[in-house]
Amino acid sequence: MSDQGRTAEGYHTLHLAPLQAAYERMTWRPATPRADRVRIREHTCPNHTVSYEFCLGGGLAFIRRTYRSDGVVVHESEWLRIRDAERLWLRLLLGQAR
């Protein structure tokens, strides 16, 4: 693993790889509460205009995308079985999906 995302104190956060030429276009929907509790398992660096979170709730998983510009706009991927969402999260991190 490279030092990207690390600080002298240890782990900082995840950073996205550059977008690949042939990437999967994800379907993003407005965020809607579907579970009583949502746990964020991983997240990308929040210091960028766009950040992502891998979320678990109600026995399913999804990716939350947050735009921070003049305001905050939040979208979610479809809610998937956890294993399928983990694969999608990895593709997002590797620049193979957005």
Question: Summary?
Answer:
The chain has one helix and seven strands; from the N terminus they run βββββββα.
Walkthrough of the structure:
There is one protein chain. This protein has 98 residues and is mainly beta. The protein has one domain. It has one helix at 82-93, and strands at residues 6-7, 10-11, 29-30, 39-43, 50-57, 60-68, 72-76. It has a 5-stranded antiparallel beta sheet with strand order 3-7-6-5-4, with helices on one face. A two-stranded antiparallel ribbon has the order 1-2. A hairpin with a 6-residue loop joins strand 4 (39-43) and strand 5 (50-57).
**Overall tally of domains:** 1
**How is the largest sheet built, in terms of strand order?**
3-7-6-5-4
Query: What is the H-and-E element order?
Result: EEEEEEEH
Report the end-to-end length measured between terminal Cα atoms: 22 Å
Tell me the strand percentage band: 25-35%
What is the gyration radius calculated from CA atoms?
A: 14 Å
Mean of residue pLDDT values: 90
Spatial shape: globular
Number of distinct helices: 1
**Biggest β-sheet, characterized?**
5 strands, antiparallel
Number of strands: 7
Structural class, by secondary structure, is mainly beta
